[in-house]
Target: DUF397 domain-containing protein
Amino acid sequence: MDLTRAVWRKSSRSNNNGGACVEVADNLPDLVAVRDSKDPTGPVLAFTPTTWRAFVTSHRPTP
Model:
């Protein structure tokens, strides 16, 4: 998995207290990558764009 061109952004659901920080790179073709911002050289989860959309859509909070 080549992540050299990944543009990482912090999730809007991450808190600002130094914990629970998730970064997402969704600028890569055929891949959405997710990592812990506190460990940028650590493991990365990789999803297809379709799987990622299904995950994000199914985990939206209800009003």
In short: Residues 34 and 45 are 5 Å apart (CA to CA). DSSP finds one helix and four strands in the chain. The chain has a mean pLDDT of 85. The helical segments are 49-58.
